[in-house]
Amino acid sequence: MLNVDALEGWEFPLLEQRYTADQTMLYAATLGFGQDPLSAGQLRFVYEKELAAVPTFAAILCHPGRWTAAPELGVTLTKTVHGEQRVFLHKPLPPEGDLVARARVHAVQDKGEKGALIHAARTLYDRAGGDPVASILHSTFCRADGGFGREFGTVPKAEPLPERAPDVVVDIETRPEAAVLYRLNKDRNPLHIDPDYAARAGFERPILHGLCTWGLAARAMLEGVLEHDETGLRSIEARFSRPVFPGETVRFLIWREDGLCRFRARVEARDVTVLDAGRCLIGAGHDAPEYMVPA
User: Fold this and answer.
1) What is the spatial distance between Cα 37 and Cα 29, in angstroms, rounded to a whole number?
2) What are the residue boundaries of the structural domains of the chain, listed by start?
3) pLDDT (tens digit, 9 = 90+) per residue, 247-269?
4) Is residue 50 predicted with pLDDT exceeding 90?
5) φ, ψ (nearest 5 deg) of residue 159
6) Catalytic residue annotation
7) What does the radius of gyration of the chain's CA atoms come to, in whole angstroms?
8) Superfamily assignment of 4-282 in CATH?
9) How far is the C-alpha of 263 from the C-alpha of 224, rounded, in Å?
């Protein structure tokens, strides 16, 4: 059972990372940017000439690692899955930089027999100027650890998607080796490359990283709504529903609203939703999220 007191008082070390243009380009390439070599919009993210960073790259910077493995937290690691992911850009992410990050456990929710949710937040700051760059909320669903009866913190509630037809549909074909490539972003979980390990986890073959599927949502938004202008994507969030297998085509259904877009992602070949309750804030005029961690 989760030790909620330990989670509420958990102290993260100062997280630090210097990242390069090479890492920025690699991340974009693992999402499939550059598959169309004649697309000037795609090339902005993989070519050092006037290079731009994909906003979701922020989610893997200054990562705290597998901190939930600490025995005193009481997390049943074999029963955890990535539940939700959010990122808010306080300003456009530079193509290279030197960052420090502050992190905290923002909230814990008890879902009873279904399990529990741990929401870990961190905010990235520019080391030189001290300005906030991005805030991230990573939500872990602990399927075997509910029923402890105490919660703390709050998280934004997902709103239902419109019932009308989507305004924009974007299909993204993933490459068969997509998970092999995405592992180079320092996520070496064998679930994404080892067939025997994937079989023991209940999958017919290795699955794509959830954060890769989530990154594809940013690519769909950049290509289908923002004409590859990354400065227009202020935040992106989604709930993970089902895994994607490398090589599948993911269809993004996007609804435009005032100042934001909502979306869902599906693999139509298997008739499954893989991302749900998706939401993007578009343009300026949006307040920083409540999960921002002070410097």
Assistant:
1) 12
2) 4-282
3) 999 999 999 999 999 999 999 99
4) yes
5) -105, 150
6) 187, 192, 207, 210
7) 18
8) Hotdog Thioesterase (3.10.129.10)
9) 12
